[in-house]
Amino acid sequence: MAASITITLEVRVSTQKKDKVAVTGAQHVLGAWDPAKVIFLKPRKSLQENDVWFTKITVGLSCKTLDYRYLVCRKFNSTGGDDVDETHIIRHWESGIECRHKTIAELGQSNTVDVYGSFEPDKRMFIDQGWLIDETEVQLRFHKNPIRMFRKRDAANSYKVKCSSVNLFHDAYPRQDSYAGQNLGYTAEELFDRVIHASNPLIRVSALGRYWNKEQSVYGMSMSSDDYMFYKLRTYELDSHGIKVDFYSDVSDQTTAPTLLGYTNILPLHLDSGSGSLVLAVTGSHGLPIGQVTVSYLVCKPMLNLKYDLEKSFTQYWNRCRPTLEIGHRGLGDTHHSDFNTKSQLEDDIKHENTLSSLITAGQSGADFVEFDVMVSKDKVPVIWHDFKVSILLRKRIKGKHRVYHIPVHELLLSQIQELRVDFAKENADIDHTDMHESVDQLTSRNNLSPFPTLKEALDAVDEKIGFYVEVKYPQRVYGTKQLEEGLESYFERNTVLDPILDVLYRHGRNRRIVLASFDADICMMARIKQNCYPVIMLIEDLGSKQPFYHDVRTQSIRSAISFARSEKLLGLSVNAGALLRRERSLLEEILNENLVCFVWGPEANRPEVREELKGRGVHAICHDEIGSSEYQSVLRAGDEEKLTILAEEYQKYSAPVSPDPNGSDSSSSEGLLTKEQLTGLLLATGFSNPSPLSSSSNLVGSSLPVTGKLEKNGISESTIIVNGHQDTPSNGNDLHQTCSRVTLNDYTNDFY
Known about the structure:
- The protein is of the alpha+beta class.
- Helix content is 17%, strand content 29%.
- The protein folds into four domains: 4-128, Immunoglobulins (Immunoglobulin-like), CATH 2.60.40.10; 136-300, Sandwich (Immunoglobulin-like), CATH 2.60.40; 327-629, Alpha-Beta Barrel (TIM Barrel), CATH 3.20.20.190; 635-748, no CATH class.
- Helix 7 (455-461) packs parallel to helix 8 and helix 11 (577-583) packs across helix 12 (585-593).
């Protein structure tokens, strides 16, 4: 039996009644970052150690360090009975890109108690909400005076509203045991615990305009007629659970218990559409209707085929110290809606928007990110295209003109979409081109100039060093009409749109920087809780018109968007430049003061002087059409090259001089040395963020480089690295530690975004 040592992990964390504290880590004894294999801690019982949780783990003597994080969970059992087949939901966890890293010697010291959310006196970790792993989240929204009581004595300006999960098929009702002949019925309290079991381990409430997202109280949350309240329930068994909504009087006297006025029930069949609005009767204690309530709902389902882990997360991270980033709008810019002559531009080999050629060239021209629009085809393939519809022209003319049919992209298969002949004429121009078909013949064979590339094709074709700013297209309800824009009433529900996009990004995104965005607030919220990897930005329309664009109140003002972004833990907002320059200048500072990242877009951002002003005011990124019009130096690429140079210089300080080979051969090929190419490959293997080929200025020839890193990434099962003149082969292909230098790769990967 191998020698081992037992150590204790302890953490001080403030918890609620049903919370369970757990730990996860890189080592197998800590679950290897798998959310399903976390190690649960036990609470200390003494008063002197209040809120301290601990566990003991045993590791081999060869283990010198531990990498780990803490998380807070709720255990869940659909039966409400024993703990058999019990699972858990992550309430929140220590996320971010850095984890706790301690030596076994440090952990062996007595009185070493970690503090949740802080791993150094001057460093705090992001405490992030848990994402959907196997559970489903149902959101209920109450807004615009949703409660109407029929009797005047019940009518009020505010009520307390409480939501509970109800097990519709639980066998917990009073019954007679046929064998023992004794009554096995439950008391009213037991019935509540089992049928309306606290069951749903996670019910949170947030309100637009208030920067909180918390659990409801015993009698629910106060709701006035002008509030916009969100109740969020997570469950593993949506098909067998309903939602009971109780309405209480909202008394100002804290010593008086609120009175239960009535209730309503929401059944699984009410939620079949994925989203919608319900008008339900409020039933009083006598069983008769006493009022009605209007409630909107949204069902967010997990990505069951994608297994995100707890190793690191970029959802809340952005390097705020670097210069403003440049984002290529649809690649090299908007071309469909610009003034240009279609035929002459085609002859000049124009790189049209949202094509692979445009995206590739934008990256080569200095763009840090490229922005493009993604929607899904009828067969659920993510394709890059801006408009919700395509215009189909019949070959036969009627009275000398073509007949045009506008067909939604989501009603066409990918093969049908990519077979279309596309006219790139200016929007709203008269369609009467006698040579239209001939002018686009060159685009009918699939190549980088072709429209409708797939998201996967873009991930494969565009340099991985170029970030992707992915706008997820989804039609919203138009203000004043409540109809979906462009009449798309039969559009896919949001899970159907998001899931294929997230799947492709997860499987083919590799080390690329990726930011998700949408004008649709629900798409932003769902993209945020379906995964724990990519940050999410909410796009805001130009709010200078007299009336809002969309019916959703969260999109109708920047302040509403700020509140929404804060409560849902979005990375930030992308605001129209015109709003910041002409009407809402102070709101940029308001966004930044709320610790939100601010992107800018819009026609005004195409002017160089506007971009310079916005950079001076501290925006984090600008999306514009002028990437190809002048020389740009990519901030991110320059940063990567600088990190490689610094890394090489620091390592060289510790390298032994190497005598020239008397035979005249290149000393860089000698055993014990790493060439530039080898170092670049090693950096890739160890998770370095987008290493560029080393420039000659790095001058690593003849250097011996000590390395600290991890080889588990990219499927490496066994690796031999030449370090300081000798071979070091990790015994399990996992951790490789050579601490000959004070510099580690982690020092150069923390500004990935």
